[in-house]
Model the fold of this input.
Amino acid sequence: MNAIVLTNPIIQHKLSIIRNKNTGTKEFREIIGEIATFLCYEAMSDAKLQTIEVETPMGTTKVKTLDENQYAFVPILRAGTGMLDGLVKVMPNAKIGHVGLYRNEETLKPVRYYYKMPQDIANREVIVLDPMLATGGSAIDTITMLKEDGVKKIKFLCIIAAPEGILKLQEQHQDVQIYTAAVDEKLNDIGYIVPGLGDAGDRIFGTK
Ligand code: PRP
Ligand code: URA
Done:
């Protein structure tokens, strides 16, 4: 499995809090955002930089800058929007697209209900966000739609991945690098990640 897994002790600590079923909505949402920021740093470690000159109070120097206009974030509704804050905090000028999908609870297949991308999406590197990679269906569908729109470089960021989802996503979209804070044991018979953290959308938005 070719997923990049964050091993940083702070991430492990934060995960221990959001896995706990007694953690409330406010703290859960804040930590999802914090882990998303870490994932963003990791995912941007191959970013191309331009060299420019700036004047410091002490003189002129060459510095490296990132062109945020080359990027777009695409959260998968709903739960993916919980990660968005953590990314726009560090790259405020990236554009944002939205994909609306929910899993049919019986078939576990994703059902599409919304798709809205920046006009120039084909020219941007796209970072797809969803806290949970379970069967992989939602991620695969989203990435397929983005490729149909002409996107060439895509990365997928999640908080927890199931081995089944990683394998399926890599089988369908070999070129997409996955970044995650944890790879869990398995999916249960209703498609939930075990041990996981439960339903990410419900925990972020307090709907259950
Ligand atoms: C959850 C999660 C992912 C999807 C993962 O969303 O946020 O989008 O399930 O499962 P998969 O890998 O098997 O497709 P859900 O359908 O519960 O919708 P929600 O975000 O609106 O709660
Ligand atoms: N979606 C979730 O929110 N949690 C899971 O464990 C699986 C899919």
The CA atoms of residues 33 and 86 lie 4 Å apart. Residues 79, 132, 134, 192-193, 196, 199-201 surround uracil (ligand 2) (CB under 6 Å). The chain has a mean pLDDT of 97. The two ends are 33 Å apart (CA to CA).
